[in-house]
Design brief:
Shape: globular
Low-confidence stretches: none
Structural class: alpha/beta
Oligomer: single chain
Strand order of the largest sheet: 1-3-2-4-5-6-7-9-8
Number of helices: 6
Mean pLDDT: 87
Strand content: 25-35%
Number of domains: 1
Helix content: 25-40%
Distance between the termini: 28 Å
Largest sheet: 9 strands, mixed
């Protein structure tokens, strides 16, 4: 639960458990993760190679269907709002009928490639972009994508929607209200 919106592999979970003297096989861990997804507690999001237009089979991300589970188990301290916002955006995209993937291009990651019928959107999610360097870092991965599909940065801006070098920057509260 504490690892939502991070790249996750069954091997990395196996290594952590084995280091904590809880021996478990990566295949068993994969089965447990699948059970959690089948129970609709988590949604698994695969990686998508933007340039090669192919689905990658390793290093998925898992998103929690309800943050209440996480807070009930782990408490409210040390909340990483960037991860929480990314999880919220993932759930909203799924609810809206999009297929979502983690975009990968030139060793860079874009939070989401959202596809529905003929529509495709590249989305980056951030917590605080009040610093110009943070805006540039978040927008940089989107600007490296050389296609004509819309690119959006969703963040807690508390401002009206605006465009930065062709990337639409939207306040997460306004995006959710639409």
């Amino acid at each position: 639960m504490d690892n939502i919106s991070n790249i996750t592999t069954t091997r990395s979970i196996e290594n952590v458990l084995n280091n904590n003297k809880t021996p478990l096989d990566h295949k068993t861990i994969g089965n447990y993760l699948q059970y959690l997804c089948n129970a609709f507690l988590y949604y698994k999001v695969k990686r998508y190679d933007i340039q090669g237009k192919q689905y990658l089979t390793r290093q998925d991300k898992y998103y929690l269907v309800d943050h209440g589970f996480k807070y009930a188990k782990l408490g409210m301290k040390n909340i990483n709002y960037g991860r929480v916002y990314e999880n919220i955006v993932a759930m909203e995209l799924l609810r809206s009928g999009y297929e979502i993937y983690v975009g990968t291009l030139y060793n860079n990651e874009t939070d989401f490639v959202a596809m529905k019928q003929n529509e495709k959107i590249h989305i980056q999610v951030s917590d605080d972009i009040s610093n110009e360097e943070t805006v540039k870092r978040e927008v940089d991965s989107l600007l490296k994508i050389r296609d004509a599909y819309p690119k959006k940065l969703i963040a807690r801006t508390k401002h009206d929607t605006y465009t930065y070098e062709g990337v639409e920057i939207i306040d997460i509260a306004k995006w959710l209200a639409n």
